[in-house]
Hints:
mainly alpha, Lysozyme, 1% strand
Amino acid sequence: MRPIFTALFLSLLTASPALAANCITNKGSFGAYKQGLSQQAASNGVGQSGLQALGSASLSSLTWRFESNPSSQSGVSYGDPAAFLAKRSGSSAQSFINMARSKKSKNPNTFSSIERTYGVPADLLVTIWGLETSWGGYLGKTPIVDGAVTLASYCRRHPRFEGSAIAALKLVDRGVISTSTQGGPSGELGHMQFLAENWLRYGVDANGDGKADPYSAVDALASAANMLRQNGWQPGQPYGEGTRNFQALSAWNDSGNYQRAIVYAAQRIGG
Length: 271
């Protein structure tokens, strides 16, 4: 498995959960968990399509294995930003930075438009894009509903991620995803690997096609900027460690290692 996804379980892009179904500690209880979640989902407005998706959801063995062995997740022991970038990208920190510069230079209108609207600089967004999916090169191979429900069921994560499991079912209702749509092992969506709950809250239609689509790079980048702005990002202000904008990065990912890696790369992309 590519290292880009081994730290995704550190992403804590969730809001306060609703009342929770009973969590589980063994795979054999997954069906019972789904039954409890189904009642909760229905009471939270999930429709027939979403409930059917829940009924057909399978436990993700990948998600369960990673949650059972958190020490295997990269980023836990990589405090040096350059080492973190190298681990996540599978190359060197400088190679990652060079590629990010190239992606930025090929999409100047997209990044300038997003910065005008939300005040989040291109260097930061192109860094996050690269860290999450290698600029769209690898979006994940775990069915989103399976991953989201499995993560929510696991007692170490429950009930913090239950809201995103229910949100994934709502995205099925809305036709944004299907039961076969694939993403990260925790149910992450599209180019920027949003959890479903945050996509419902912050997703925007930036390309003007009438829908907010996490699998559109333009929509996903703009939505990431929207999320940061709504969580305290100050346009035109520095974002180094200790600043208010650095604190805003915790809305994206609350790992200090991840935040420092974002800043390290972004400052060098524009340098």
